[in-house]
Amino acid sequence: MHDLSSDIDRLALVPLYIAVEPRDPRGEGPRSTEALEHIPAATLGEVAEVLIQLGVPADLLDGAVLGAPGWIVARTVGWSDGRIVRWAPDENPVNGPYPTLSSDDVATYLARAIDVSCRVASDLEIPGETSGDDAVGLVIEQRSGAVVGGMRSTDLPRLAHLASSDLWFAQIDGASIVAGVDPTTDLEPVVTCASPTANVGLERNGPWRRMGLVRSGAIVTAHQWGPQWFRVDPSGGADPASDVLALVDDYFDVPSADAEDIAQEFNLGPAQTDLLADLLDDVDVDDPFTALLRLLDLPVEAAEVAEGWLPPADLPGVRRVEAQPFVRAMWSSLTTVPTEPGRINDLQRLWIRRPRLYWVLSAVETVACAGGAVALLRAPMVGPTSRRTGVRRAAGWALAVAAVLSAADMAVPRRWRGSGATGSH
């Protein structure tokens, strides 16, 4: 048979959400005394039955858990042009590797089959109208997040550049907290940065909360709390290995962490590990971030920021770090006064602040290097091809370069050296 697929390389797999409206006419206009007060909303079972008839693999959720009673939300996957993938083993695909239906066809079929209005979009959003006919709606994926761990203060300009967004930075009880000035900032470059200790990324996405534990840039484990979706399998279990079903399973795969993995990173005892396991298993927990950070002995302010309860600008000692081009970000990292202890940080603080002792040592270093360079380069040559002569000249030129760099360093203007040291909120 002829290959009828075309242009699949230009198509991208995207999530598609189907919002099924309530069957309730109240508020739509004047009613007679004989009008029904309420028409029951569509049920999960009704919507699932229609999706099975269409061969659409999907997950279903009752809108009541999202604060929108009467609504039903389904999620599936499709292509960027709005075509939804189908499980239809007896059909040949005509555009792409899998059978598909357009989003409009799916919404129309659902509307006719269960007498409701349906909308399909790539965002999880429940539309609505005010009394003034202004479209408002309930946006489910309202994001906020924070990262808590061992991020160094000198790394923040570079991380702001990688995140392409301004960041808030604070340190509480020896741990660093980073959040985006824009609550929707993708903090992946921050949580995956190399740091002396493990980083914990916290993200709230509507009613869902996700935690990621990263060590040295590698993900150790991740976990998600939140409402559970009901799976719709159009094959009825007859084809569990289907590629189409796997697309939906893999795309919306929910991470589940092992308490032992987290306990090993934070040296938790048996009792704490048991409490952590109970927390991970509790799908209905109201405030998982706070409970988690208390178990890990990390500042709970990070949980309040991630939940959206505490504006990161209100963190104690917070500093705003602006996103800059690469070269300026690297210079800002170099000229940021470190807030952490350590000999390397002490040297960087000394270079930036430059007390009187620094100038004395730098002057001595410059004079010593220059004198050594002159002595080595003017010393009599043993022979034109002598290895000892070559080593002596190389050492002399190295000392000369060091003298020039030391002198140039002393000439760096103060306004250049302290560019990253300010900017506190």
Explain how this protein is built.
- The chain is of the alpha+beta class and 425 residues long.
- The protein folds into 3 domains: 145 residues; 137 residues, no CATH class; 57 residues.
- It is 35% helix and 20% strand.
- It is built from 14 helices and 16 strands.
- The strands form 4 sheets. It has a 7-stranded antiparallel beta sheet.
- The longest helix is centred in the last third of the chain and has 24 residues.
- The chain is elongated.
- The chain starts with 12 loop residues before the first strand and ends in an 8-residue tail after the last helix.
- The N terminus and C terminus are likely disordered.
Q: Mind telling me the C-alpha Rg?
A: 31 Å
Mean pLDDT comes to 82
Q: What string, H for helix and E for strand, traces the elements in order?
A: EHEEEEHEEEEHEEHEEEEHHHHHEHHHHH
Report strand %.
15-25%
| Major sheet description | 7 strands, antiparallel
Q: What is the count of β-strands?
A: 16
Overall SS class? alpha+beta
Q: Detail the poorly predicted runs.
A: 1-10, 129-137, 419-425
Helix residue percentage: 25-40%
Distance between the termini: 68 Å
How many domains? The number is: 3
Shape descriptor: elongated
Q: Helix count?
A: 14
How are the strands of the biggest sheet laid out side by side?
14-13-12-9-11-10-16
What's the arrangement of secondary structure elements?
Layout: E1 13-20, H1 44-54, E2 58-62, E3 72-79, E4 83-85, E5 100-102, H2 103-114, E6 118-121, E7 125-126, E8 138-139, E9 143-149, H3 156-163, E10 167-172, E11 175-180, H4 188-191, E12 199-205, E13 208-215, E14 218-225, E15 230-232, H5 243-251, H6 259-266, H7 270-281, H8 288-295, H9 301-307, E16 319-321, H10 326-334, H11 343-353, H12 356-378, H13 387-410, H14 414-417
Antiparallel strand pairs: 1-3, 1-6, 2-3, 2-15, 4-5, 7-8, 9-11, 9-12, 10-11, 10-16, 12-13, 13-14
Helix pairs in contact: 1-2, 3-10, 6-7, 7-8, 12-13
